[in-house]
Amino acid sequence: MFTLDQLPKSIQTKINEIEKDTESQQLIGKPGYTAIDESTLYDSIISLALEKNVLLKGPTGSGKTKLAETLSSIFCQPMHSINCSIDLDAEALLGFKTIDNKDGKATIEFVPGPVIQAMKKGHLLYIDEINMAKPETLPILNGVLDYRKTITNPFTGEVVQAKKGFGVIAAINEGYVGTVPLNEALKNRFVVIDVPYVQGDVLFNVLKEQSQLTDEKLLKNYVTLSADLIALVQAGNLSEEAASVRALIDTCDLSLFLPPLRAIQRGIVEKLEDDREKAAILNVAQTLFD
């Protein structure tokens, strides 16, 4: 089990020196990420402590968001999130102007978005599915992501310099439907961390700790189910979301009150659209749960 004592003393000092924001505790992520290879978490911590931007690369359901939350917890830093889509624009990133009424007078106020908030407060910024955004939207962040850590707010003209402690974590799922290749100039601004699927004994412990299911025989069967689904994903016969740890935890919880096959139907199968994929999962499940 990874502990902070494994980090070099200089990195521990850097983490401890970050100013803690006691007013935004509700934005600090919950820990819980567990990896097959501890270097995944270790290297992410080192990179953030050295003020590098971290790009988490892995399949859907491999735990990229949970890793980001765990990093937020370790650094005791609130985290502001951006969920990228084709509709993402500068206002969603930086903020927007609105009309406010003060003392009977209408005034124009700027409401800061997640980028501006994280920079000014020295918080973490999490950009989920960064390659879902339109390529023309992201260059606005170039100055934020390089050594300058600054941006000129186009809505106010203010030059914003990131406060000490500011860090950026992004997540990417390459080849997923709706994604586009990340611009090389943008990608070059990140340290890339591979986040593989959690499997075997590590997955067993994750399910035991994060689900409500306590039946060890059932938990072991779900670990086997996960391994079989991952094999189908890697062979190109199943969508990545079918092997999601999040979906598996849902299924474990349902198993407290539903037969396993019905829990799998509700927690995993019905989240998919393709009838052939649904049938494939049920075929695998029926060999494990009679």
Could you explain how this protein is built, in words?
Belongs to the CbbQ/NirQ/NorQ/GpvN family. This is Denitrification regulatory protein NirQ. It comes from Sutcliffiella rhizosphaerae. Helices cover 40% and strands 17% of the residues. The model has no long low-confidence stretch (mean pLDDT 89). The strands form 3 sheets. The chain has a 5-stranded parallel beta sheet. A two-stranded antiparallel ribbon has the order 3-4. The protein has a two-stranded antiparallel sheet with strand order 6-7. It is of the alpha/beta class and 290 residues long. It has 2 domains: 4-194, Rossmann fold (3-Layer(aba) Sandwich); 200-288. It has helices at 9-17, 39-49, 64-75, 90-94, 114-121, 142-145, 184-187, 200-210, 216-234, 245-254, 260-267, 275-288, and strands at 53-57, 79-83, 95-102, 105-112, 124-128, 150-152, 159-161, 167-172, 190-194.
Produce the secondary structure layout.
Layout: H1 9-17, H2 39-49, E1 53-57, H3 64-75, E2 79-83, H4 90-94, E3 95-102, E4 105-112, H5 114-121, E5 124-128, H6 142-145, E6 150-152, E7 159-161, E8 167-172, H7 184-187, E9 190-194, H8 200-210, H9 216-234, H10 245-254, H11 260-267, H12 275-288
Parallel strand pairs: 1-8, 1-9, 2-5, 5-8
Antiparallel strand pairs: 3-4, 6-7
List key phrases describing it.
Denitrification regulatory protein NirQ; 12 helices; Rossmann fold; two-stranded antiparallel ribbon; alpha/beta; ATPase_dyneun-rel_AAA; CbbQ/NirQ/NorQ/GpvN; P-loop_NTPase; globular; 2 domains; 290 residues; five-stranded parallel β-sheet; single chain
